[in-house]
Structure formats: structure tokens, C-alpha cells
């Protein structure tokens, strides 16, 4: 077992294009033949990502750091957050498998990003992506779609926090997570109750009580750990009414 690579070493490796070991130091799940070696855009095969793994609760980047790299989740989950002036944490987003994150409008990160669980990502250098967008209409359109999707998510969160009850907030959140996992109605929540509370602007106690209320109403069923099975019609009824 060697020394555990750090997030900073991941960024250095992305610069040098050197494959990285996994967080366990055994070389599994990284490098060639691991399923990581995919490009960011179909018509830009040169935009290849560098694989890296982060342990649960490990920081990927911090607020105020240079935004030199963009990340795509391969496996696991990531949360982004800001710490408010009074010390409270506001989670601003959850990034699940397939999600791209870390693409900022300016030159520094506005949020902190941390792994919710052991997480594998692809790291892309930001400048080549921006250069590709100036030469490829397809890349420019895809980046525009990402930007508008992020804006829509921010608007939806503002509406959720400002005009919804606790039960409506949690129901809408679970419907959204289900959709991002493929809409099967059954999934394991990657985030804790505290994470959900800090995202929805609630207390942990309110989140726990609301989960119990929804379960009593037959809108969901919990089975061991964070495994959730939704009654989607009943949840949507809560959201829409």
C-alpha cells in the first residue's frame, strides 16, 4: 500500500495526463481498461478525462479555489455547498453518476464539493473545453444546455425553499432523485438526513418526521439503511397539491 493520493495530486495528474491509482492504493478501478477512458463530447475525442477516486467525505475542491478543472461523476455521489455567514451550511446541489460539475462562470469555485460516498470521477481540463466550444457548434450547444439546466435547477430550488411545506419539499426531492436514478421507484439514497435537511432548508428532526409521515401515508417504504421504494403517484399528489 502506497501513500494515498490527494485531491491536489489528482489535479497534477490531470495536467500531466498520467493515470492515477484508486483511493485504496491498489490500482484497481483506474487507468486503462477501467471504463474511465471516455471523452466529454462525442465529436471531440481529444477531450479525454483523467480518472480519480475520492473517499467518503473527502473534499474535491474548495470555495475560492481556482476553477481549472471540470468533473464528471462515474460512480458514487457528490454534494456542493456554501457555508453561510452564521456558520450554517446550505447544500446547493447533488451530483450523481453521469453529472458534470465544477464548471464555473468565473475563474474560481463558488462552492465546495465533497464526495458523499466513495466516488469515482473523470477530471477534465477546463481550458481545452472552452477552446473546443469556440470551434464546434455541437460542443457550444451542449455547454449551453448544461448551463440552462443548472439555471433551471437553481430556480426550482428557490421555488422549493420559498413556497413549499416540508412535506412538499421532501416529496419533490424524492421524485427528482428517483428520476435521476432512472425512474424505477426504488433506490438507495446516497445522502444523509442532514444532507437532505441542509438542501431543503429544514432541520434534521423535520426531515425525519416528514419521512415518517410520508411512510404512514403510503407514499414510500423504507427498508434497511437508506433503501427507498416510492409510491410515485401518491408522492406526485403531495407535490402537486
Spans where pLDDT lies below 50 across 5 or more residues: 1-7, 17-37
Distance between the termini: 55 Å
How do the strands line up in the largest sheet?
A: 3-10-5-8
What is the helical fraction, as a range of percent?
25-40%
Q: Look at the helices and sheets and give the structural class.
A: alpha+beta
Number of strands: 13
Please tell me how large the radius of gyration is. 19 Å
Query: What is the 3D shape?
Result: globular
The share of residues in extended strands comes to: 15-25%
Q: Biggest sheet, in brief?
A: 4 strands, antiparallel
Order of helices and strands: HEEEEEEEEEEHHHEHHEEH
User: Mean of the pLDDT scores?
Assistant: 80
SS field, number of helical segments: 7
Question: What report would you give on this structure?
Answer:
The chain is an alpha+beta fold and 241 residues long. The protein has a four-stranded antiparallel sheet with strand order 3-10-5-8. Helix 2 packs across helix 3 and helix 4 crosses helix 7. It is globular. The termini are far apart. The N terminus is likely disordered.
Which SSEs are present, and which pair or pack?
Elements: H1 7-16, E1 39-41, E2 44-48, E3 50-54, E4 59-61, E5 69-75, E6 78-83, E7 89-95, E8 100-101, E9 112-115, E10 119-125, H2 126-135, H3 137-163, H4 166-180, E11 186-188, H5 193-200, H6 204-216, E12 220-222, E13 227-230, H7 232-240
Antiparallel strand pairs: 1-2, 3-10, 4-9, 5-8, 5-10, 6-7, 6-9, 11-13, 12-13
Helix pairs in contact: 2-3, 4-6, 4-7, 5-6
Amino acid at each position: 500500500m502506497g501513500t494515498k493520493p490527494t485531491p491536489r495530486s489528482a489535479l497534477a495528474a490531470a495536467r500531466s495526463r498520467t493515470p492515477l491509482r484508486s483511493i485504496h492504493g491498489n490500482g484497481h478501478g483506474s487507468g486503462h481498461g477501467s471504463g474511465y477512458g471516455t471523452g466529454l463530447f462525442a465529436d471531440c475525442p481529444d477531450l479525454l478525462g483523467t480518472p480519480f477516486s475520492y473517499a467518503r467525505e473527502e473534499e474535491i475542491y474548495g470555495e475560492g479555489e481556482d476553477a481549472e478543472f471540470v468533473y464528471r461523476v462515474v460512480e458514487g455521489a457528490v454534494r456542493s455547498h456554501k457555508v453561510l455567514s452564521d456558520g450554517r451550511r446550505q447544500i446547493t446541489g447533488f451530483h450523481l453518476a453521469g453529472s458534470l460539475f465544477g464548471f464555473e462562470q468565473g475563474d474560481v469555485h463558488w462552492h465546495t464539493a465533497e464526495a458523499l460516498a466513495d466516488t469515482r470521477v473523470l477530471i477534465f481540463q477546463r481550458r481545452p473545453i472552452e477552446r473546443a466550444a469556440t470551434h464546434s457548434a455541437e460542443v457550444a450547444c451542449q455547454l449551453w444546455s448544461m448551463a440552462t439546466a443548472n439555471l433551471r435547477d437553481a430556480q426550482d430550488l428557490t421555488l422549493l425553499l420559498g413556497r413549499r411545506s416540508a412535506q412538499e419539499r421532501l416529496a419533490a426531492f424524492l421524485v427528482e432523485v428517483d428520476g435521476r436514478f432512472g425512474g424505477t421507484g426504488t433506490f438507495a439514497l446516497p445522502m444523509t438526513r442532514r444532507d437532505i435537511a441542509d438542501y431543503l432548508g429544514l432541520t434534521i428532526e423535520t426531515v425525519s418526521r416528514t419521512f415518517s409521515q410520508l411512510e404512514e401515508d403510503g407514499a414510500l417504504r423504507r427498508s434497511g439503511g437508506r433503501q427507498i421504494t416510492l409510491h410515485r403517484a401518491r408522492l406526485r399528489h403531495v407535490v402537486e397539491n
